[in-house]
Design brief:
The complex is a heterodimer of chains A (about 110) and B (about 110). Chain A has no helices and 11 strands. By secondary structure, chain A is mostly beta strands. Chain B is mostly beta strands and about 110 residues long. In chain B, strand 9 and strand 10 form a beta hairpin. Classes of the chains: A mainly beta (about 110), B mainly beta (about 110). Chains A and B meet through strand 4, strand 5 and strand 9 of A and strand 4, strand 5, strand 9 and strand 10 of B.
Chain lengths: ~110, ~110
């Protein structure tokens, strides 16, 4: 069974800093990896999806990388802003299906 | 922007009541999912559907049931709510192929007294 781990569990940074969130998974036979953002009491907003054939994806200040062979992904956030404060989740699909396995997330706080 | 809607957003109700959580999507997605999330914990899949009249149980055992009579609608029902059902329930949908992203609703936060 796929297991997803995210480090760190929580992170506080001053506004303007660049930061990296880490995600690792145990089963490298994945279709893709998806990064989400979750605000308190809300649902999930999809940020980036990396296909298994890709090494990275970029959207604005966000850059996600994928190293399938080592079972790792990183989410890089440039020039962080207070509005980036949220919990960031990574998720990978179960092999042969499309339901996702989630990590417990990294709770990010950007201090003005 | 994904168009997937969940109602109600919040529900506080007494033990023993029958509850239906609604989920609708306007994207024509065949695949739909229900996840359960306890505070500070990861999401766990409790039900999924690959199309009309198709429903399967997920990894986390749940006393809830689902139905898929129409493509756009995937309601979840608890016949007799208990305090142990208190949680956040998130609905998602995705396109037909394995490489497509899942889009989530805003969730229903359920509290059983």
């Amino acid at each position: 069974k796929q297991e997803v781990t995210q480090i760190p569990a929580a992170l506080s940074v001053p506004e303007g800093e660049n930061l990296v969130l880490n995600c690792s998974f145990t089963d490298s036979a994945i279709y893709n990896l998806q990064w989400f953002r979750q605000d308190p009491g809300k649902g999930l907003t999809s940020l980036l999806l990396i296909q298994s054939s890709q090494r990275e994806q970029t959207s604005g200040r966000l850059n996600a990388s994928l190293d399938k062979s080592s079972g790792r992904s990183t989410l890089y956030i440039a020039a962080s802003q207070p509005g980036d404060s949220a919990t960031y989740l990574c998720a990978v699909p179960q092999t042969g299906a499309n339901n996702l396995f989630f990590g417990t997330g990294t709770r990010l706080t950007v201090i003005p | 922007e994904a168009d997937i809607y969940q109602t109600p957003r919040y529900l506080v109700i007494g033990t023993g009541k029958k509850i239906t959580l609604e989920c609708s999507q306007t994207m024509g997605h065949d695949k739909m999912y229900w996840y359960q999330q306890d505070p500070g914990m990861e999401l766990h899949l409790i039900h999924y559907s690959y199309g009309v009249n198709s429903t399967e149980k997920g990894d986390l055992s749940s006393e809830s049931t689902v139905s898929r009579i129409r493509t756009e609608h995937f309601p979840l029902t608890l016949e007799s709510a208990r305090p142990s059902h208190t949680s956040q329930y998130l609905c998602a949908s995705s396109g037909p192929t394995g490489g497509q992203p899942q889009h989530f609703g805003d969730g229903t936060r359920l509290s059983i007294l």
